[in-house]
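We modelled the chain as a single entity of 340 amino acids. Its sequence is:
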Amino acid sequence: MKALRVTGVNKIALLDLPSKKAESGEILLAPIATGICGTDLAIIEGGVDPAFITYPVTIGHEWVGRVIGHGVGVTSPAIGTRVVVEGVIPCEKCRECKTGATNRCDLYDEIGFSRDGAAAQEITAPAKLAHLLKDSVSVESAVLVEPAAVVLQGFHRVSPKAGSKVLVIGDGTIGLLAAKLIRLYKPASVSLLGLRQEQSELVKIAGVDHFYTSEEELTEKYDLIIEGAGALTAVAAALNHSCRGAHILLLGYPDHGAKLPIVIDDLINNDLTIHASFSYTQKSWGEIVALLNSGKIDLSFIATHKFPLIEWESALATIRGGNHKISVPRGKVFLTLGVD
């Protein structure tokens, strides 16, 4: 089978690998599509904390697939079923797992990081972590379950209040998802600070009231600031535009080891609360799937660029294009695997 394999830092290729076999308790799946994001670039370039990555690895942690085989003891989901599978694989025995914090499992294991991901023609995964999707849920929305669950997990951390003035920083996938999903909490207004005017149509569909492409344009303070850009300048902007008593949610990932000097006086005097949120739990994943299956949300507008697996280099180039080299809207970039 073909698989997009990272064998070391800056070593990536589409390789021929042996076919997968589902072990006891597992299902064998044929991926339909898999998203590619900045974290995948970090995996390729060595920017991920070494505690969370094992090389060699097939990338692909945002994906949807069809069940094509069962391991011993598995009868469901049925062959042919379209599913999304939780990537974080909890041990279910440690203190964190027992309290529901499966994102903080002591024995970290995650598809696309410590075990092979879905940028391949086949993948195996624990059957118990598969979630069925209704036919009404598009492939595009399905690919976005993982990052949407990350955003929702962050919201569980901050418990957004109705009537809040919200600022989202970042006009990429995480920022767009945050702007879309925060509407579930009935904010008074949602503003978004990005970098590219070309994103304006996507930002509008996400439900943003005010879109800015320069921090100098911001004249207000906000109750809740959601940082989804993964840049130190974005964290600084969040601090600069917090009202007293504000909550700041950090969702974006700068490179491993990045540091930012902070004026502690400002944090204390302004009674600020900073929340860092890691990954997602089984609860937040299930909630996103339920929202999609119910038709309450549609995330397909965020998926803007599709490439067949064989054109993986073009997909990576699109992401690496930066904020000023691509003159069209860019949301989620994903690879199609030739099945549906």
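As a brief sanity check on the tokenised model: The chain has a mean pLDDT of 95. The radius of gyration is 20 Å.
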